[in-house]
Fold this sequence. Notes:
13 helices, alpha/beta, Rossmann fold, two-stranded antiparallel sheet, globular, 5-stranded parallel β-sheet
Amino acid sequence: MAFGDIAQGNLERFLDANRFADELCIFIHIPKTAGSSLSAELNRMRPPYHNIHRRYFHGETVTFSRIEDEIAAVIDSGALGDARSCSGHFSWDQAAPLRAARPDARAFTFLRDPVKRVISDYRYSRTPTHPTYKETIERFPTVESYIEANETQDKMARFMLPNGVRTPDQIDAFISTNYAFIGLLEMYPLSFNILSLLLGHDRMPSEHKRKTEDTADNAVEETPALREMIAATNQRDSALYELVRLKLLSVREDWRAFRQTVQPAA
Length: 266
């Protein structure tokens, strides 16, 4: 019962073998992958739902609580016992206490084209919506300086995978056995609908939250040279994305045929 089953290319068989109704559904929310919209949908499809997030405090500088402490607080409160879903900007490793507290937990996430995601992340980090946007603008005066920073590179892989999982074969083996589902923003209707079917619904996406605003500080021209630079500094993300893309393509025709025969539930 895992995401790797989808590679067999039979959507009906994958759904029958992997559908889960009451287990804790853990959404690892990677920044700038339409996760805010998906979290809102998850809240409706899978209550009780908990959004686990770092709190921030304004002083001379902006400080944040630790996501590990916020996860521990949810567990210690007892709220996780009855929960059916949760999400947050936490990594696979950081989510280990959630899986330990709820051994039935199933994890899923969504990815985005690595070049598009890095540019979107950079642009969002320079808007007033981001608590530390002034510091970000000062620290990274150009998109190139942002791309070159180690902490911005391979962010999807660092959220999804243990550090030792690095080669394409290792990545494929890990995601195939440890995730219930992985979707792509570039295949969002298919990805969202398959996820909803796994959760016992039949829905199409209806929300888009937190579209990044355009400001004088976050304009980016996506040139071939910029794309090459991002691809070169995010090779682990690129391998991860391509592996998931191929798996979803294996059931795309099955999904299209399925959608022609049914109407999505309200």
